[in-house]
Amino acid sequence: MSFNIALLAGDGIGPEVMFESVLLLKEIEKLYNCSFSFREGKVGGVAIEHYGTPLPEETVELCKRSDAILLGAVGGPAWDHLPVEIRPETGLLQLRKQLGLFANLRPVKVIPPLTKSSPLKDSVIMGVDLCIVRELTGGLYFGTPRERRIGLEGEEVIDTLVYKRYEIERIVREAFELARLRKRKLVSVDKANVLESSRLWREIADALSIEYSDVKLEHMYIDNAAMQLIKKPIEFDVIVTENMFGDILSDEASVLTGSIGMLPSASIGNGPSLYEPIHGSAPDIAGRNVANPLAAFLSVALMLRYSFGLSKEAECIEGAVHSILLEGYRTKDLADEGKTFVSTSEMGALVRDAIQNKYLDYELVNFYEKCR
Ligand code: NAD
């Protein structure tokens, strides 16, 4: 029951939420029969400062030798002027590519005490529990050519949206498998009325649905999906979509949960999986001890469950997060009148304390669920 975890804190609020995540894992070690060894690597802006590249080879090697990878966030204004090949975000994209992390799972579950933190009505978001399966290593973010150039009519720019059949097949299959473990409803999001890549996507999803006849498949255009996600989010179970659509839809979905600081993610492929909050490095609040660490904590829970098979420990973290929110503690992003605002480190300490009272947490959460 001993696991090696690669820690890639990155930039901005990344190191702040990572620090609290490590303290959380040390607390889990004390209470359960498991141990973690941590090895740190650099990616993003911090790697540019140290190595002149956003993804040093030794970081890739460290990740490959680990049982799982925990990442904070990358990027920031200090590196925005750099050419795209050496920007922090390129380091993260290349890491996903080199580790073959083609599937990004983004669970979106509305936690009852947080309904007032969302600008949407309680009646719209109550009970929302969906998962976005985003393709992570193809599409517009990786296609070439990608450049500015001088064409016959002057300056022009090109990005390329390219998918191979097997890339679409494996991500859609992953989504069907996930839907089987949930409510057996899959919405495949595309823009098949305009894009050729979407037409192949839809064709492949239809072909696979014969094999997964127990799952109800529906197709939806991205523009409609963006609207339905806000209008009737309760209707969704699993959503599968290509890289850029998934990137945008999941930020939108974070509004249902109250804050982007609440959404965890798991990126899986053939090797070790990578876990990270969906938010970025939030330069506007970095270094002020106000970032919400809960998305990072919930990412830790996903890691314990999916990479290490430690379900009890994962539930303990999720239960502790719920109970702290139920008690009325909030970081600033979860604006809600009458609640107690706490800093990043205070929220970390509260969740660690709640973990020690793990049985009490469950009783509280169960009690609350029954009252609803
Ligand atoms: P962002 O997610 O960093 O921030 C968007 C807004 O949400 C900001 O107002 C920020 O303060 C707030 N926010 C984000 N996380 C929060 C948290 N945990 N607690 C409280 N508030 C939080 O997105 P952005 O501003 O578009 O991008 C900032 C930088 O992050 C850019 O350099 C971008 O490229 C990078 N980025 C990185 C990742 C990643 O590492 N996976 C993802 C998205 C953006």
Task: Please name the defining characteristics of this protein.
372 residues; Isopropylmalate Dehydrogenase; 2 domains; two-stranded antiparallel sheet; 13 helices; 14 strands; 22% strand; globular; binds nicotinamide-adenine-dinucleotide
Give me a quick take on this structure:
By secondary structure, this protein is α/β, with parallel strands linked by helices.
Give a verbal description of the structure.
Its cofactor is Mg(2+); Mn(2+). This is 3-isopropylmalate dehydrogenase. Keywords: Amino-acid biosynthesis, Branched-chain amino acid biosynthesis, Cytoplasm, Leucine biosynthesis, Magnesium, Manganese, Metal-binding, NAD, Oxidoreductase. It comes from Bacillus salitolerans. Homodimer. It is a single chain. The chain has about 375 residues and is α/β, with parallel strands linked by helices. The chain has 2 domains: about 1-105 and about 265-370, Isopropylmalate Dehydrogenase (3-Layer(aba) Sandwich); about 120-255, Isopropylmalate Dehydrogenase. Helix content is about 45%, strand content about 20%. It has 13 helices and 14 strands. It has helices spanning about 15-30, 45-50, 55-65, 90-100, 120-125, 165-180, 195-210, 220-230, 245-255, 295-305, 310-325, 345-355, 360-370; strands at about 1-10, 35-40, 70-75, 105-110, 130-135, 145-150, 155-160, 185-190, 215-220, 240, 265-270, 275, 330, 340. The strands form 3 sheets. A 10-stranded mixed sheet has the order 2-1-3-12-11-4-5-10-8-9, sandwiched between helices. Strands 6-7 form a two-stranded antiparallel ribbon. Helix 1 (about 15-30) crosses helix 10, helix 1 packs parallel to helix 12 and helix 11 (about 310-325) packs across helix 13. The protein starts with a strand and ends with a helix. The model has no long low-confidence stretch (mean pLDDT about 95). The protein binds nicotinamide-adenine-dinucleotide.
